[in-house]
Design brief:
This protein is an alpha+beta fold and 199 residues long. It has one domain: Roll (Pnp Oxidase, Chain A). It has five helices and 14 strands. The strands form four sheets. It has a seven-stranded antiparallel β-sheet with strand order 3-2-8-11-12-5-4, with helices on one face. Strands 1-13-14 form a three-stranded antiparallel β-sheet, with no helix packed on it. Bound molecules: flavin mononucleotide (FMN).
């Protein structure tokens, strides 16, 4: 089977794309609005772009042509905290994906505790195993929506000491990372092995 994007209905392209681009990590992003209201939402169009300095991208669609709260807050204030989403917290993560008005604080709705961040105003999720404090690096409008691509420079990493291996590095077997597949499907990382690269 081949799919010519130019001749295919958008609904079908979206469905195929989401089911092929797997597994995706889930950025669980906290921001603070100009009015001072905290916001928390998950995004799986998320990936690393650079390590020096560390920069990640978030692909955020629009809702009825308007910025989602996360994009609006990031554009307005330039700050966020991106958390690793663990399998343990997946049910709470889903609650924070509800399409809520900007006045609602998803930390409260999902029963999640906040902790103070060090360099940015949005709070951290107290129970996240990893939290990345970040500042907006670039904002681009992308696609036909258009949607928003937000590049975020990571300026501080918080990691639970229990997540480190004997050499003090993050241990993938301890992080309990939740992976997003297509539709409503999710997965956990159950097996890891090494592949040696040629010289
Ligand atoms: C696991 C998961 C991943 C998601 N990934 C994205 C994404 O990459 N981009 C996007 O625009 N919406 C994504 N969503 C939907 C948003 O979380 C949802 O629109 C949310 O209400 C946005 O919240 P906000 O308006 O507070 O920013 C995702 C939802 C879930 C459950």
């Amino acid at each position: 089977m081949e799919i010519n994007i130019a001749e295919t209905e958008q609904k079908e392209i979206t469905s195929f794309f989401y089911r092929i681009l797997i597994p995706r990590p889930i950025a669980w992003v906290s921001t603070k609005s100009k009015a001072g209201i905290d916001n928390l939402a998950p995004f799986s169009f998320y990936g690393g772009v650079s390590a020096n300095p560390p920069i990640v991208s978030l692909g955020i669609g629009r809702r009825a042509g308007k910025h989602k709260d996360t994009s609006q807050n990031l554009i307005d204030t330039g700050e966020c905290v991106i958390h690793l989403t663990s399998v343990e917290l997946s049910e709470k993560m889903i609650k924070t994906s509800a399409e809520l008005p900007p006045e609602d604080d998803e930390f409260e709705i999902a029963g999640l505790e906040k902790a103070k961040s060090t360099d940015v105003k949005p709070p951290r999720l107290r129970d996240a195993r990893v939290a990345l404090e970040g500042k907006l690096y670039r904002h681009l409008e992308v696609g036909n929506g258009p949607g928003d691509m937000l590049l975020v420079e990571i300026i501080r990493i918080h990691i639970d000491d229990g997540m480190l291996d004997e050499r003090g590095r993050p241990d993938s077997s301890k992080l309990d990372t939740l992976a997003r597949l297509g539709g409503r499907q999710y997965a956990s990382l159950t097996e890891a092995w090494e592949i040696i690269r040629p010289d």
